[in-house]
Specification:
binds pyridoxal-5'-phosphate; Aspartate Aminotransferase, domain 2; globular; eight-stranded mixed beta sheet; alpha/beta; 14 strands; Aspartate Aminotransferase, domain 1; about 15% strand; 14 helices
Length: about 425
């Protein structure tokens, strides 16, 4: 090419959660039975869509209007419904025009970061859900600016570290909060959230908050939605139906803009996001139409509570199986449906391995782990996959130097769940001691 056509941030766009599937599928073809514990899709893990939910959606499927475009911001009655839900809590107050719908939060994330000025940075958690950290890094064409989530303190944000990142980096214009968190499963207590909002206020920053898991909290943990504590700080709060419905294929998420008119620059920025959506016309119509009817359905709360209690049971089973293994830092998951496990420093090295029965599978794994630059946790993940078929995601692919893995808690069959975690525990012990 006579001109470089590659975007400056192209190298920052990685999504190991799906990349690892390519490896798993290769090994599957060689005869390995694979247990997919890498991706947060409840439906892919066998979650049955309840009949009442299908009936509600079917009702809207029969209406012609569900097949048309909708307004750029989204369907007005649905935005009114959502704004009322926020306002009823008594915190920050919003109107329907403070809400914009997107084709899933993935779309919202790429617009929210994509339309930030190149030189303005949003400090993101480390580890971080890759869609956020990659989109932020890609917009800047540089490595993400991160604050530490502390595995020795329930994976809570380290507020001192966050303040340092802000103070010594004048390019930082915003803070990203994911609560409950992916990949750690942490649920942040009120005082931590208040500390983060206070830092935004002190340094004149805005907040981006991802609350896609806000209604998936268990083990008696408590948190608050951002709308309760934001005060007068400008913020973009992300919500969606992919996780709590369960309907990730709807591609339906939205942003709620808090204090959108308090700062002219913030107002202009939010307008640019709206204009970007306008160029695309609008987001998916059908799920927006069905959303209020689904949320207010008499079965909705019971259905969600049943799922949440299942994740609670699984979080405890997983914790009990892994917590006493030497060399690991293990925190019980309290929200969302992921668990992140870190290896203590120095536990992993590039000589460790697991026995793999099939010659071809072994050769494939060895080829992968011998690729230059393969991180030590990726090496572990490939051996685990080759030896047991369990597919997890290396923690180092979530914008962190920490070595470990992320695993989902979505397996519905409890016996199978125990078996999978038994294989992980056994694999870790044998790998560390090999
Ligand atoms: C924290 C977080 N935000 C956003 C998303 C993406 O959601 P959507 O399906 O709406 O694109 C995910 C998906 O796993 C997630 O974990």
């Amino acid at each position: 090419m006579r001109t470089d056509i590659v975007h400056i941030g192209a190298g920052e766009l990685t999504y190991e959660i799906r990349n690892i599937v390519n490896v798993g599928e290769k090994l599957q073809k060689l005869g390995i039975r694979t247990y997919w514990e890498n991706i947060g899709d409840p439906v892919a893990k066998g979650e049955e869509i309840p009949r009442w939910m299908k009936e509600v959606v079917a009702e809207f499927v029969m209406q012609d209007a569900s097949y048309g475009y909708c307004p750029t911001r989204g369907i007005l009655s649905t935005r009114e419904f959502l704004a009322e839900q926020v306002n009823r809590r008594g915190g920050v107050q919003i109107g329907p025009d403070d809400i914009i719908f997107f084709n899933g939060l993935g779309d919202a994330i790429s617009k929210v970061f994509g339309f930030l000025r190149r030189t303005a940075r949003v400090v993101v958690p480390s580890p971080s859900y890759t869609t956020h950290s990659s989109a932020e890094a890609a917009h800047a064409g540089d490595r993400p600016v991160c604050y530490r989530l502390d595995p020795a303190n329930h994976w809570y944000p380290d507020l001192d570290d966050l303040e340092k990142r802000i103070k010594y980096n004048p390019a930082v214009a915003g803070i990203l909060i994911i609560n409950p968190d992916n990949p750690t499963g942490a649920v942040y207590p009120e005082e931590i959230l208040r500390g983060m909002v206070a830092l935004a206020k002190k340094y004149d920053l805005f907040i981006i908050c991802d609350e896609v898991y806000q209604n998936i909290i268990y083990n008696g943990q408590k948190t608050l939605p951002l709308s309760d504590l934001i005060g007068d700080v400008p913020a973009i709060n992300m919500r969606g139906i992919s996780k709590e419905m369960p309907w990730p294929g709807s591609r339906c998420g939205w942003i709620e803009v808090y204090n959108g008119h308090h700062d002219p620059m913030f107002e202009k920025y939010v307008n640019s996001i709206l204009n970007a959506k306008m160029v695309e016309v609008c987001s998916t119509t059908l799920p927006q139409k069905a959303l209020p009817a689904l949320i207010t359905h008499p079965e909705y709360k019971t259905h969600l509570a049943e799922r949440v209690s299942r994740y609670e049971r699984c979080s405890n089973i997983a914790y009990d199986i892994l917590k006493d293994i030497d060399g690991l830092i293990v925190n019980r998951t309290n929200g969302a449906f992921y668990m992140s496990v870190a290896f203590e420093e120095g536990v992993l090295n590039d000589k460790q391995s697991l026995p793999i029965a099939g010659k071809d599978v072994r050769a494939q794994v060895e080829e992968l782990v011998n690729k230059p630059g393969t991180s030590l946790d990726k090496r572990f993940v490939y051996y685990l996959l080759g030896a047991t078929g369990v597919c997890v995601v290396p923690l180092s692919s979530f914008a962190t130097e920490l070595q470990g893995f992320r695993v989902t808690l979505l397996e519905r069959d409890e016996e199978k769940f125990r078996m999978i975690f038994g294989m992980i525990a056994d694999g870790i012990k044998r790998y560390i001691n090999s």
